[in-house]
Design a protein that fits this description.
Blueprint (H helix, E strand, L loop, with lengths): L1 H24 L1 H9 L4 H19 L5 H24 L4 H28 L2
Length: 121
């Protein structure tokens, strides 16, 4: 159980870190976010929130309720990204990638609860 949890959580965290970095420093990503119709401050806000979420997910001492908020925020990010890219008529590959990471997010959350529940029996 722990292997699945940590594998999915680390893969998700790596993606979030890369995504946050591109939101802050990659000119094509910055322009892409603008093309999707989002204001510049939203891009910066998302980058900061992704970095905060990484810490919350990776540090075991955070309470499970705080981790749930991080999972929710990340899930909303993926849903927003999927909708924005579909409306913008971007490649379907982008939607598939977001769905794969949404699957990692869901798997990580499920196994977090399995680990938490088995520890509290």
């Amino acid at each position: 159980m722990k292997t699945i949890y940590w594998t999915t959580t680390i893969l998700l965290s790596i993606f979030l870190l890369w995504s946050a970095w591109t939101y802050l420093y990659s000119k094509p990503t910055i322009e892409g976010v603008k093309e999707l119709g989002f204001p510049d401050h939203f891009r910066i806000q998302l980058a900061v929130l992704k970095i905060i979420a990484i810490f919350i997910l990776l540090i075991p001492q955070f309470p499970i309720q705080i981790k749930e908020w991080a999972y929710t925020g990340i899930g909303l990010f993926f849903i927003t990204a999927i909708v924005a890219h579909i409306v913008h008529k971007d490649s379907f590959i982008i939607t598939i990638i977001n769905l794969v990471f949404m699957g990692l997010l869901i798997t990580s959350n499920i196994y977090l609860h399995k680990i938490f529940n088995s520890a509290n029996l």
